[in-house]
Design goal:
By secondary structure, the chain is of the alpha/beta class. Helix content is 40%, strand content 19%. It is built from 17 helices and 14 strands. The protein is globular and about 80 Å long. The N and C termini lie far apart (75 Å).
Length: 555
């Protein structure tokens, strides 16, 4: 038998739902969002986040407006326990934000979970046990009654422990893990058992979370499961139905969206889809889907550069350039016909009318992207030779995001001269426009130290005076950006970065390129130096200097 044989698999069971209503419904508002980046996202990493990374990601989630954040599995992970205690003891949880923690339905773990939450103003205790046939029979060796008894006992233990901490406003959440692979009538039966123990009310509901722990069927099947559950369970008016989808079939977002139509109120997910195996539902994508339909996503997605930078630095997972909505190439047109259509539509787009531009489902400016980056030049249009000449003659491997700006400068100069540009002229333009690390500000020296994270002291010369800037971060560039931000108050995010050794044209050993966002304005800079760290810092300074010079010219 061929090793690639479809006959070894069985189709996922469907739901007996003949009068389904979800296809006739329309989503009109955002769900309750829950970030599980610090739990599901973190546990999926090759190297779990350290304290500094968790703190940075926590700050971003607060800035974006998340009101419910799952922070970990404190009973099973000492780092998660310590991070939760830091949040509580240092009063880092805003009054309108609720932390959520995950725990198995086991007595010793539940007890330690409540210990970890001591002193919290409000918290969600999320208890679970697995219910699918394969888990019941092959992992736990239990029948239906045995698994239901575990859920019942877990619910009792949660209620009992909560009674010992009356100072905290408790919310109880239960997940039948592997819900998507569980017989739907049995899933309802188990959850009803839990709800009977907790006795929620309309004023104080509990949460039942329905996870596609493994995505085993198409989104419509999951929607059927959710609708069946919502219409057959007890005490529906006292229960918040939540979903937690995974992306094994590539449909995590679609499944979550259809689940909202089917009766779900709440969605658990992660930024950019990080999570176990193929990841969780991507809240950024799902939120932007709502935004593009004229619905307020109720979380701040206006600065994807910052979201990408923080998420990438904390997870070490790069974002694909064609990631929905926020990828670097999403709003880029290389095709001549696409470019022509975009130009014509932009020329007719009124300021006060609904957005109607071919090939652009939203206005890129909403996400900090400019129109210059939309219509880009590649080798097919004759401008890609600029990058080729610089690499051939001077060893400069200019990144794509800098090529766009450089090609525009070269084209403008070529039009002014009325002739062809040679390699030396192109190189001069590159140095003139991108290597601006001497003025207005210049790097006089720096001191870099490591103690769990990077700390920098940078001496900056500006207008005949010298200033000492101090900052911290994950890496020299992040520390320098932090120092500059503290000094100037500017909002600076690193969009992209590249460096390489030079092979020709100069005695310098390395060149660094940086693409940053300064107060919503994207700008690129470069620098050459024998010291790679110095080259990196000077590249950032070049970009910052370009912003100052552009602002001065505009004034």
């Amino acid at each position: 038998m061929n090793s690639f044989d479809h006959r070894k698999y069985r189709a996922a069971p469907t739901v007996p739902l003949s009068d389904r209503q979800w296809p006739n419904r329309i989503v009109t508002k955002a769900p309750r969002w829950v970030s599980v980046d610090l739990r599901d996202g973190n546990q999926a990493l090759l190297e779990p986040m350290g304290v500094a990374q968790k703190q940075r990601l926590w700050s971003l989630l607060l800035k974006m407006g998340f009101k419910e954040i799952e922070v970990g599995f404190p009973a099973a992970s000492q780092p998660d326990y310590d991070f939760l205690r830091w949040l509580i003891e240092e009063d880092r949880i805003p009054g309108d934000v609720t932390v959520q923690v995950l725990v198995q339905a086991r007595e010793e773990l539940i007890r330690r979970t409540f210990e970890s939450l001591k002193g919290a103003r409000r918290a969600i205790v999320h208890v679970y046990n697995s219910t699918s046939p394969v888990q019941r029979e092959r992992v736990f060796g239990q029948d239906r009654d045995g698994i239901k008894a575990i859920a019942h006992r877990g619910a009792e233990l949660v209620a009992r422990e909560a009674a010992g901490y009356p100072e905290t406003d408790w919310v109880f959440q239960y997940s039948p893990e592997s819900f998507s692979s569980t017989e739907i009538d049995y899933a309802v039966e188990v959850c009803d058992t839990v709800v009977d123990v907790w006795r929620p009310t309309v004023e104080h509901p509990c949460i039942i979370n329905l996870p596609a722990t493994v995505e085993v069927a198409s989104p419509n099947v999951f929607a059927d499961q959710v609708e069946y559950f919502a219409t057959h369970m007890k005490r529906r008016d006292a229960v918040v139905i939540s979903v937690h989808t995974h992306n094994d079939r590539g449909s995590a977002v679609g499944a979550a969206e259809l689940a909202l139509l089917a009766g779900a109120d709440r969605v658990e997910g992660t930024l950019l889809g990080n999570g176990e195996r193929t990841g969780n539902a991507d809240i950024v994508t799902m939120g932007m889907n709502l935004y593009s339909q004229g619905i307020d996503p109720e979380i701040d997605l206006s600065n994807p550069d910052e979201i990408i930078q923080v998420a990438t630095e904390c997870t070490s997972i790069p974002v694909h350039p064609r990631h929905p909505w926020v990828g670097e190439l999403v709003y880029t047109a290389f095709s001549g016909s696409h470019q022509d259509a975009i130009r014509k539509c932009l020329g007719r787009q009124g300021a006060d009318e609904p957005w109607q531009v071919a090939y652009l489902p939203i206005d890129p400016r909403d996400l900090g992207r400019d129109y210059q980056a939309v219509i880009r030049v590649n080798s097919q249009s004759g401008k890609g030779g600029v990058a080729f000449v610089l690499e051939r003659d001077h060893g400069l491997q200019v990144p794509r995001w800098m090529q766009v700006d450089l090609a525009r400068i070269v084209q403008r100069e070529s039009e002014r001269r009325g002739g062809e540009m040679d390699g030396a002229s192109i190189h001069s333009l590159f140095l003139e426009h991108f290597v601006t690390d001497k003025s207005p500000a210049r790097l006089l020296g720096y001191k870099l130290s490591k103690n769990g994270h990077d700390r920098i002291e940078a001496r900056i010369g500006e207008a005949g005076s010298e200033r000492l800037l101090r900052g911290d971060g994950n890496g020299a560039i992040a520390a320098f950006v932090d120092a500059w931000t503290r000094y100037t108050g500017q909002s600076v995010n690193v969009v992209d970065y590249a460096e390489h050794a030079l092979t020709a044209g100069t005695d310098a050993e390395a060149v660094a390129y940086v693409h940053i966002n300064v107060d919503g304005q994207r700008v690129a800079g470069a620098s050459l130096d024998r010291d790679t760290v110095s080259a990196s810092l000077k590249a950032v300074l070049s970009a910052l200097n370009r912003v100052q010079m552009q602002d001065a010219k505009a004034a």
